[in-house]
Amino acid sequence: MLISMNWIGDFVDLRGLDIPALIQRFTLSTAEVEDIYEMGRDLRGVVAGKILSVENHPDSKKLHLLKVDGGDKVYDVVCGAPNVREGLIVPFVKEGGMVGGQEIGMARLAGYESHGMCCSEKELGISADHSGLMELPEDTPVGRDVTELYGIIDTVFEVDNKSLTNRPDLWGHYGIAREFAALSGRELRPLETVSLEQFQSLEPIDIDVQDKELCYRYSGLKVRNITKKISPVDMRIRLFYCGSRAINLLADLTNYLMLEMGQPMHAFDCAKVDSIRVRRFDSPFTFTTLDGTERRVDENTLMICTKSGGEDIPVAIAGIMGGLDSEIEEDTDSLLLESANFDGASVRKSSTRLGLRTDASMRYEKTLDPEMTVPAIGRFMKLLLDIDPQAQVISRLTDVYVKHYPKVELAFDKAYVDRYTGIEIEDERIMGTLSSLGFEPRQEGDRFTVGVPSWRATKDVTIKADIIEEITRIYGYDNFEIATTMSPLYPRRRSAGAKDDNFVKDILVQTYQLHEVHSYIWQDVKKCRALNIEPEENIRLINAQTPDHEVIRRSMGPTLLSVLGENRAFGAQFGVFEIGRVAEGVRKEDGLVDERKKLGIALFSRTSGEKELYLKLAGIIKSLGRSVKRVELELANCQPEFKWQHPRNTAVIMAEGTALGWICTLVPSVLRSIDRKAAVVCGQLDMDAFASLPEGELSYREPSRFPGIDIDLSVVLPEGMRFVDMEPAWKGAGHLAGVGLIDSFEQAGRRSLTLRFSFSSGEKTLSKEEVQPIVDGIIERLSAVGAVLRS
After folding, report:
1. Which conformational region is residue 704 in: left (phi greater than 0), alpha (psi within -120 to 50 degrees), or beta?
2. 346 and 384 co-located in one domain
3. DSSP code of 196?
4. Is there a single domain that holds both residue 259 and residue 143?
5. 759 lies in the same domain as 774
6. Which of 11, 345, 681, 742 matches a 20 to 30 Å C-alpha distance to 428?
7. What pLDDT score was predicted for residue 485?
8. How far is residue 671's CA from residue 682's CA, in Å, rounded to a whole number?
9. pLDDT per residue as tens digits for the range 148-169
């Protein structure tokens, strides 16, 4: 949000103050200032010049030869603006002056010398209009510096919107001015308004708030005989500096009031909107908003309607945007002014569903103060009548006040302040600070009672600690003496699941050099389809930012495969992992989402084959079981759970008869979408189930000091035999230190494994003659179960 210090100066006397230092104090006490812009300071020698004569250029259809009175002398100027005419007063940059950061000197244009430049509003940097020269009023003194005529020189700073989320009172210049008044110790001037009581004898407006849950207050006033169409220059400059554009007087006034008071308003053409109905509809329909877009409005969206022919005709989406059919046009001379207050959550949800976020909706969703609606109308009328005294009010103020926020009053004692702040703050300073911020403090001895103003009571100040924050931030956190607190610190005991998570991450990063990633919990429809993976139905988000992010993911697989595809140029071989959340439908016992914590792993390689990569992932999974839980995880063939998993190369991860997850390769269509020349595998482990596994016995064996002997055996397995089925053949064999899988392949329908048996002794170096009988016994027991040596 952009804030003009000239605008702030309307309400607080800032003369003699160091403005940059004051803005810095605002950052420290109230909200983060992202940047400061010095506006209009790149202008020099720009005066009000009068065009004395206009001649057509003999060799150009667009250029004109002008004589311009600059106040000190007459200048010859070549100009191509379409609206030049004799007697016109325009901003004129004298020779040697500066505009837009560029010095203007004598220039030769189409054979004629030009000793200055007539300017448009865009060239002055006060609007985006460059359709022609800026036309100044006829009574403007010739030769007067334009920066003295209008508020062009200004300091504008940008406030981070996120830091104002809980401060609805700061979404307008007057609320910001209140902060500056408190920080500088200066008085806050009241807003000048028109007393609306003088119109009580007039007829009321037909306003019917039918939806009393979502509309808290609706105030309206009718005005006619509006003769002015263009806003004053200073108003247009302020709107432009604060990120808005000038449209016409009535639209500009509503935007001006929103930026000044933080209260959104809407002006309906009285010829099109004569009465108001605030309601929701029973079924969806289409509605064209002011931006010309046709939008689908559902039954949960609050609408502003007018009664016509016995029907309620929608004219605006409440709190978001008006309709195209009721907009203010060039010939509009009467209006029905809306100043209302709506439920913030409803506005936010409707804005999200429609994909339409406006300046008004951003303010309403912060929970605005309903007490602002009537003062905003009084302020609007003050500005309108100052600009167009001929305007006439033709209705009484009609105010339908549905929901009143309860008045908040908080009590505390001086000891409470001292204890929380840790410093001694004088009673007078406490009272003065709270009064300057609009609170109503009362003191009886050491006891304080504080009435919270309505603009802070909607969501911001609700407990005593909030009052302490108000006192200390204006006092200045940088004024606190730094001291070490005396408080006991206790170690936080981590859960078994958290310890397992950290252990798993350490192993994957340090041992296997995998990269940890972080993703969102929903499945991205566009990314899934880019992988040739059809998104699956699952739990849906009600208020998703986009339809592509509505469905919660059931698996970590597509998410990590997308990461591989997006980073395939990272290297010839790499892997990623994430411990994240998935949703496995709804639990039957309580109807809540069955949310599970999963470890997802995906490996990518252009140098290794698919089989080698698959075995590597299997080894990683088994290593996690041994290292973290000291259990042996087993793999068994299974039917794929998802269509993108390869129907033959998918295995379930088992532990003590419980399925913990899966590993798989990909169907060809998905693999090709990632990289046609690479191998890709992925897996998933249920970390909740993994954490619940009982830990195995911790045992260790001293490594032998003597060399060992490795014996490789290639065996052909009968159909259906697994590695685990062969383990009894070597279990308990003397001097056997370990067994590892070296190779695996199929030939003529039969599967062959190469196993490496490692033998060692803690007492001596073994000879082959000592090991051979042990090996023969293993071969004999393998043959007994059908695994024979490959010939």
Report:
1. beta
2. yes
3. G
4. no
5. yes
6. 11
7. 65
8. 11
9. 999 999 999 999 999 999 999 9
Classify the C-alpha dihedral 190-191-192-194 as positive or negative.
negative
Q: Is residue 725 part of a domain?
A: yes
What amino acid is encoded at 494 in this protein?
Answer: R
The residue count of the chain comes to 791
Plot region of 166 (φ>0 → left; ψ -120 to 50 → alpha; else → beta): alpha
170 DSSP 8-state letter: G
pLDDT confidence tier of residue 484, bands split at 50, 70 and 90: confident
Same domain, 466 and 502: no
- For residue 73, give both structure tokens: 């002398």
Per residue in 282-310, pLDDT (tens digit) is: 999 999 999 899 999 999 999 999 998 88
Are residues 681 and 722 located together in one domain of the fold? Answer: no
Give, for 668, the enclosing helix (H) or strand (E): helix 668-674
Distances (CA, A) of 761 to 341, 710, 734: 85, 13, 9
Q: Which residue is it, tokens 């006034």? A: 253
Task: Out of 401, 420, 442, pick the residue that ends a domain.
Answer: 401
Q: Report the distance separating Cα 82 and Cα 149, nearest Å.
A: 25
> Residue 667 has what pLDDT?
94
Separation CA 431–CA 450 (nearest Å): 9
Number of domains comprising the chain? 6
Tell me how far apart the alpha carbons of residues 99 and 644 are, in angstroms, rounded to a whole number. Answer: 63
Q: E strands of 376-491, at which residues?
A: 392-393, 398-401, 409-413, 440-444, 447-451
In a domain, 488, yes or no: no
Beta bridge mates, 552: 522
